[in-house]
Prior knowledge:
Elements: H1 2-28, H2 32-36, E1 38-40, E2 63-74, E3 90-100, E4 103-110, E5 114-124, E6 127-129, E7 136-146, H3 157-160, E8 162-173, E9 178-189, E10 200-211, E11 216-224, E12 238-245, E13 249-256, H4 263-266, E14 280-290
Antiparallel strand pairs: 1-6, 2-3, 2-14, 3-4, 4-5, 5-7, 7-8, 8-9, 9-10, 10-11, 11-12, 12-13, 13-14
Amino acid sequence: MRQISCILFIVLFICFGKSYSQNLEDILNNNPQDSLEKKFIDATFKSTRLINSHTVEMPAKKEMVFCISHRFGLLKDGFKTFYGLDESSNIRFGFDYGISDWLTIGIGRSRFELYDGSLQLKLVRQQKGLHNIPVSINFYSAVEANLADPLVPTENFTIYRFSYTNQFLLASKITNKFSLQLMPTYIHRNLVKTGNDKNNIVSMGFGGRYKLTKRLAVTAEYYYTPSNMLTTEYYNPLSIGLDIETGGHVFQIFITNAEGMTEKSFIPQTTYSWKEHEILLGFNISRVFSFK
């Protein structure tokens, strides 16, 4: 936990240090007009999802984002499973609706009777000019209910079938092509598999995006969870992908060792390892609908 705090402090110090140097440059150049204009930074990311993680991008007021997420089987199984395409796969349907430009609510349904609901608040928005703020900060909170977990006694449905996620999303568009995001995360699970598993999980996510062309970008994300919070059968999730903007949709294709698609699933419950070449092919497809 102390290491995570130090990393976060250093990143924020660098970002705000950059902001101060930019303000000083404006003063030395005697350009007061630039400092009086407030300009928000747009399109830090192209989608509400980086890969598995949420981003600081949110639907505008009265807009809805519909996202279909899919994870296939293991690539290493080769042609006998057509590189995982013939295996049983995981799929999720999600809807995020903009109550306002700073508040989004979401619902989702994924395989194995897993339901999730969420809200996301925009706390700070990256901008320059009148207020030179180098980062965007959102707060994300979600609750998940597993209605088909055989480990849960039916008489204790309300108590044991729920998990909770709280997360801050800190993102900065460093240049027109390069964006970074930190995702400090806290997860509470009412029920865990064994006595060695922790009910409370703290993890730090790192992610980024680099634009190759106007419609093409490379993405990556990784979550580090302290080893004392994970049993030996679980691994930290690492994902690498490609964003393709088609105009009406954002198509994301990637490889990952995480089969789950919600924070409670992919952060503390990833059972596949990159070292063992246990890699999955996946994709997300996002579409925005306007109700204005």
